[in-house]
Amino acid sequence: MSQSSPFLSNDQLLEVFNYTHTATAVHVGETAIIQSANDAMLRIWGKDRSVIGKSLEDALPELKGQPFIEMFRKVWLEGMLISGKDTAADLLIDGELKTFYFDFEYRAIKNDEGKTICILHTAVDVSERVLRREAVEREQEKEEALQREQVLNEELAATVEELAATNEELVATNEELQETQETLHVLNNELELRVVERFNQLSESEKRFKTMAEGTDILIAVGDEEGNAIYFNKPWTALTGRSMKDLLAFGWADLIHPEDRDRYMNIYLSALRDKIAFSGEFRILTRKGDYRWLLTNGPPRFHADGSFAGYISSCIDITERKLIELERLNLNKLIEASSEFIALVGLDMSIQYLNPAALRKLGWANSKNRNILEVIFPADRPAAEKLLPGVLAGTNFKQEIRFWNEETGNPFWIEWNGFAIKDQETDKITAIASVSADITERKLYQEELQDINLEMAAANEELATTNEELAQTHEDLIQYTKKLADSEERLLQAIDTGKMGTWSIDPKTLEITVSGFVKNLLGLPLDEPATMDDIMSAIDPDYHDIFNTALSNALNNHSSSDNEYPITNLTTGEEKWVRATGRVFVDQHGHMTEYSGLFIDITEQKLDELRKNDFIGMVSHELKTPLTAINGFVQVLQRKAKKDEDNYEMIALEKTNSQIRKMTTMINGFLNVSRLESGKLLIEKTNFNLDELLKEAIEETYISQSSHKIILHPTCGVDIHADRDKIGNVISNLISNGIKYSDNGTRIEITCKTTEHEVELQIKDEGIGIKPDDIDKLFERYYRVQGNHTISGFGIGLYLSAEIIERHGGRIWAESEEGKGSVFHFTLPLSY
Ligand code: ADP
């Protein structure tokens, strides 16, 4: 650089820079090494030139902890400008750390490449300015504080003024209070005077009370606050016969009836505990030794100061009322418990009261909004409607009528007694009452008795007829004995003369040839040949079928025959019985040559048999009459035993009943045999369902015998036209035979088969069975299998059954294997 260069050298520049007033320094690097600092800066720092070349921290150690060193580092690294105004910095000046204020600037000086080459640090000490401003500010604050204090002082002064005013008021109030106190004092004195006066009055009143208490016939007693009685008036001592001393404290309590004592004492003592009024009823022992009912009322008493003083109790004698009440209570209980039907009805016929028995019988829950007519069985209501108005007119009624249970719909008989209830004072009818007894049972007995009476009357009538018949029979028997002698004679003659005819029919021409005996018997001319027509006209028309069947069986099947016929002598009109036996004769080719046999007069024998039958019939009939009566009475007894719940009687009567049933069956059997023999067994056909009949028969059997299991296999599902009772007898007979001839616990099976034309019933048992020899004879009259005679029976059941089935055009037969059980079959035609 030449001498003449107008530019200053670096040193010169620094020189100049030294003189600038603005404190300036140049720093380099992250640690702000002091490159140069002018005097102004050194003054601020309080340092000399020895700091040049030192890092800022080394040069001014007091800056540690202050933000400046970090600011320098930032400016160096980021090439920025940081400046501040009135910024405080603590600097060590003359060994003393002082706070100064600066406006400063740290400016990064960059080269052409933009890289920071140094930091230009300028600072102006504004401490004075800052301090002055702070002093001004402090002054201002002080001023403001003063002003605020001033305001407060003013407010205070105002408050003090107010206080002074209040104080004055207080003084005034105080004065008033004093006055009041004085008035109170006066009042108090007055009060005290009045209390004294009142006390005097009270003693006066107590005196008056006592006089009053003694002068009344109400029982009055006084108790103290402990509950002790302290006074009793005369009526008390008069009633109880005890002295006042005896009654005092709790002495009176000993006289209370033991049943009432605890209850009443409880009332009294618990009222006493709560200091409240009490009231109660009890019986007290009187001087006469009886008890009277008393009603006590005890209001509490209080002392003048309001504290509890005890009780004044007054008692009145309520014995009469109590007795009426008790009577009413008992009456009510009686009505409630009564099994009679008790009702109270308003004048509009609405029910006001029904006792529980009535509700129960009617099946009602209650009687609210119900009319009396609703209790009456609908059919009997018109009768009831006539009765009720009568009561309002003063006529009581007593009527047997039916009420009904609404739940079950069943009526029951009642003896209905209705009467009017009158108001005792006005004598006006206020309601209708009715007390009724259930007479259903009586009614039933009555009906039954009536039935039995009717039966008895019928039985008596029959008895009378039977008696007549008996007389007649007696007469007949005399005649018969006579005839027997005659017939014996005739029989002898018959045997002598061989009085037994022959007959023969030509199978080809059907011409008949008879012997003279036969002609005589039939009343045919001896000198003329007899014809088939002659024979037929002599034979009873009812037997023509039998005759024709025998003939056709002989002709077609070569069967033998043996039949009995009633005949009428065509000349004399005499009626006789004949037996015709017949046999078919064949040649060596098996062709029929003749059908011939004997004709025997069996009139006497037959009559004998008929009489026997009549006799059986009569005896059976006779037996039936008392049996019917016994049956009736047993039923009545059974009902009675059931009602009395007498088990022994019930069992005995059930057994009696079962025996009666057995006997009835036996007697009916004999009656039927007798009727059958005398041609009086009538078949009366109706249409009925066979299944129903079967069920009935099974149920009936179960009633008397439950020893076997009866099984009904698929039902028949047919209606038949037959005599229901008699077919029922057949079924019952076959079932009971099955039971009779098999072990208990075995099964009886009933099966039904239907074809287009007939229905077949099979009754099968698992019993003793029947030998093949016996099986065909079972249906004969009085036939019983040998060896079975330990089992009771007469051998008529199957005989009758066979007759009944045959008369219906059916068949009956048995299948059996000895020891394995039997099956009885019968059929009935379906086409009718
Ligand atoms: P009863 O039973 O009164 O003797 P029945 O006429 O009913 O009269 O029967 C005639 C006989 O047939 C009986 O005595 C009995 O020997 C025989 N019998 C009837 N039913 C049966 C049966 N289910 N099992 C075995 N035997 C029978």
Offer a concise description of the structure.
Residues 278-330, 397-451, 561-614 form the PAC domain. Its EC number is 2.7.13.3. The chain has 832 residues and is of the alpha+beta class.
Report on this model:
The protein has 832 residues and is an alpha+beta fold. The chain folds into seven domains: 2-125, 2-Layer Sandwich (Beta-Lactamase); 131-210; 215-324, 2-Layer Sandwich (Beta-Lactamase); 342-438, PAS domain (Beta-Lactamase, 2-Layer Sandwich), CATH 3.30.450.20; 498-601, PAS domain (Beta-Lactamase, 2-Layer Sandwich); 607-673; 684-829, Histidine kinase-like ATPase, C-terminal domain (Heat Shock Protein 90), CATH 3.30.565.10. 47% of the residues lie in helices and 25% in strands. It is built from 21 helices and 28 strands. Strands 6, 7, 8, 9, 10 and 11 form a six-stranded antiparallel beta sheet that branches. α12 (440-497) runs antiparallel to α16 (603-644) and α19 (724-740) runs antiparallel to α21 (797-807). The protein is elongated and about 215 Å long. The termini are far apart. The model has no long low-confidence stretch (mean pLDDT 86). Bound molecules: adenosine-5'-diphosphate (ADP). Adenosine-5'-diphosphate binds at residues 737-738, 741, 765, 767-770, 778, 783-785, 788, 793-799, 822.
